[in-house]
Design a protein that fits this description.
The chain has helices at 4-21, 23-35, 44-58, 61-73, 78-113. It is mainly alpha-helical.
C-alpha cells in the first residue's frame, strides 16, 4: 500500500522546487485554489468531497492525499467520501459510454469513406 503521508511530503518538496523555478505558476495555482473558498455557497467539507471525486476522475494521487486529509479535517465521514466517490465512478462510466458512442461515429464515417 502506498504511504500517502510520505507521498504528500515528497510532492510538496518537488512543488517547492518548481516554485523556485517558476514562482508565477505556483502563485497562479494558489489564486485558483483559494478562489472557491471566498464564496459562501458551499461549505469546506462539501468542497473537499467534490475535490476527492474530481481527484479520482483526473487520476491525481497528489490531489487525493491532500484532499483526503482536508476532508477529514472538515468532518467528512467515510460514508460521505464513499458516496462522493460513487458519483466519480458513475461519471467515469458515463464518460466512457459517451466516448464509446464517439468511436462508433468514427467507425461509421470511416466505413462510409472506404
Amino acid at each position: 500500500m502506498m504511504n500517502w503521508l510520505q507521498y504528500r511530503k515528497e510532492r510538496v518538496g518537488r512543488i517547492g522546487e518548481l516554485g523556485k523555478l517558476s514562482p508565477d505558476t505556483i502563485s497562479g495555482y494558489q489564486t485558483l485554489s483559494k478562489a472557491s473558498s471566498k464564496t459562501s455557497q458551499l461549505d469546506a467539507k462539501t468542497r473537499e468531497l467534490i475535490a476527492l471525486a474530481v481527484s479520482v476522475t483526473t487520476r491525481c494521487d497528489g490531489c487525493i492525499t491532500v484532499h483526503a486529509g482536508e476532508a477529514l479535517k472538515h468532518g467528512a465521514t467515510r460514508e460521505e467520501v464513499a458516496e462522493a466517490l460513487g458519483v466519480a465512478v458513475a461519471l467515469n462510466a458515463g464518460a466512457a459510454m459517451v466516448y464509446s458512442a464517439r468511436v462508433m461515429d468514427a467507425m461509421n464515417q470511416h466505413a462510409e469513406a472506404a
